[in-house]
Amino acid sequence: MFPANFAYVAARSVENALELMAKHGEDGKLLAGGHSLIPAMKLRLSSPKVLIDLGTVPELRDIKLDGNALVIGALTVHADVAAAELVRRHLPGLADAANVIGDLQVRNRGTIGGSCAHADPAADLPVILAALDAAFTVRSAACARSIKADEFFTDFYTTAMNPDEVLTEVRVPIPPTGSGTAYVKLPHPASGYVVVSAGALINRQSSGSCASARVFLGGLGSGPTRAVATEIELTGKPLTPQIIAAAAAKAAEETDPLEDSYADADYKRHVATVYARKAIEAAVQRTTH
Questions:
Q1: Collapsed DSSP state (helix, strand, coil) of residue 164
Q2: What are phi and psi of 11, to 5 degrees?
């Protein structure tokens, strides 16, 4: 199908994008990589009258260290996130996720900010960014503010951003020495979208015990689901295969997974425990002593 007629304007800066958003109001729609918006427009699920292209704003494409955090510009494409030496060194779990998004074309055009702002419940990045305790910087004409990842995704395709705000960067704290991060997923065989996924951040004490853990699951609900029981089961205990397995077995406790044509709720609960274990084990293997 073909999209409805629309006008196109390229933003010159974040400030210019905000001006264009104010000018066009509900008729305007921000364009990042376009891998979610353009297909929706072709199906007439979305019919903006004006596309405001952020891809022409160079300041939004960068990966840099800022104190004890890695700052990733919202227009950085997935392939660059996956390949960046800073990401692979400090946040290998994020590189894991960026490297399995869609296919080669999607990874070379889709952006970290566009994916997160779209808030697809079957996306990869929300889960690992929640596990990494990331925060999103959003800007309006009046001010900038920061929103934690586990508060950012509020419902299906819905975020905590206001209509007059632009997502400009993702700020991810660098885990302390002794930490490991990982992301794994069961992809749908046709689309590559998440059936169930898991992201883990494990902080290991010098004794070998778990100092703290953050474990999030994808594919079970409208956004990342925190595996609180698993985190509690791990904390303060030696990270042996038996303890990891026992903790992962609790990953889907008190969840009510969404069913779809590929997987029912019971199947997703079981797979969540398997992939939580895989993510924790991979994160533990990356911890330093």
A1: coil
A2: -75, 140
Domains and their CATH numbers in the chain:
7-53 (3.30.43.10), 58-173 (3.30.465.10), 179-285 (3.30.390.50)
Terminus-to-terminus CA distance in the chain, angstroms? 56
Question: pTM of this prediction?
Answer: 0.95
CA angle 260, 152, 136 (to 5 degrees): 130
Q: Residue 248 corresponds to which tokens in the numbers above?
A: 């992962």
Residue 288: pLDDT band (50, 70, 90) is: low
For residue 241, give the 3-state DSSP assignment.
helix
Q: Decide: 215 and 203 in contact? Cβ < 8 Å.
A: no
Strands 194-204, 7-10: pairing kind: unpaired
197 phi, psi to nearest 5 deg: -140, 165
